[in-house]
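The pair is quoted verbatim as follows:
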Amino acid sequence: MKIMFSKDYLGNKAGAVSDLPDDQAKVVVDAGFGEAVAADPKDLQDAVDAIQKSLDQQLEAACHKITTRVIEQVSKGIKSVRPSIVIGSDREDLDPTGGFKTLGEFAQIVRRSTIEGIRDERLKRMVAKADGMNESTLADGGALVPTEYANQLYRDVLAESVMFDKARKYPINLGNSLFIPVRNISELGQTAATGSSLGTWLNADGAAIAAQKPVYNRVQMTLNRWGTLLPVTDELLADNNVALSNFIVDEGGIALAWDLNQTLIAGSGSGQPLGVLNSGALVVASADVGQTPFTISYSNLVNMKARLWTPRPGDYSGVVWIANPDAEAQFEQLKDAAGRNLYYAAGTIEQSPQARLFGIPVVYSYHCPALGSQGDVILADLNQYFVSTKMGASVETAMSMHLYFESAEVAYRIIYRIDGKPARQAPLSVPNSTLSRSGFITLAARGGIS
């Protein structure tokens, strides 16, 4: 309570105003030394504000304490039901088309973004991370083609494939190399390092079992890089969605499929896959004595089949004939000694639309040497041909507005990494036979271009 002193009192001069506790102020007033002074409204408001602030702070602290307690209890309840909550990927990032209706629409959006400065939120997820392309600014580099349209190239490669889709696949997860273990035997039955069998016959009770160990080799797969640049004119980008999509998908897929077929059949193994015709495991079946040039005979094919080896005898699940298309006319005329046809063209047998020779599927490839040359007909067990690609990767496709900027063209770049080679490095010797066997057999030259 505020008191104005009317007389000097305990050090307070007359006329002075002092704020005293209520009990002391009552004593001063009752003794006649002062009078109560009305409170200043501003002081009252300050007092009210101070009280309100204190209450707010206390209330906030209480709410925080209660909220923390509730969260702790709820968390304990969730953990008792399942160990954790996993937040998945953004659903937009899972869209294989990137939100674009066609490859042509994607290309047009990239063009408008780069040239006209019109931004599209969908492009933020497609900024290319590749050599010569800036990772953050589309105008400085390029954009990755959405997964769905890149995978279309991969599907076209499979559709055009002679060997790739049927070969045994070994994806590479880390790095660019992989070692595949294979049994290292030079003769059938020699399964041990000593050149004999891993097992032995025990002729008496208590006879000791001889310790043996198998011998393994390893095939090293190292990814080779294939690439192409496809320029597309600015006019095509601006005027035609459909033609653009067809151009990129068709031309890119056909080019990659063609080069893959070439190398898997006849590749050198240097900077590219090793083709079956250049493999050390290839067996060359002899032509007939005095055989007419450029011909394929019944005995030629019988001799080739006699040299085929599969890990499981009689298992032809991965076996195919691969032949130059010019050979089909002669296949259609082949008959056995009883006059029965050996070849059934595609569609001849309703249950088997693929062409068959001796009941084995036939695929044709212009990558086989010319008719009459060694390699014009190949018998291959593709379970014994290894192919490695990067795990999870199909075809890497990106586009750039700037490589051919002066000629108003857009560059589509396609990259594919792959290696392929036969599992074995040499033919197998067979007990009680003078003929070696292999998973890959071809026919010797008969007057063609060797």
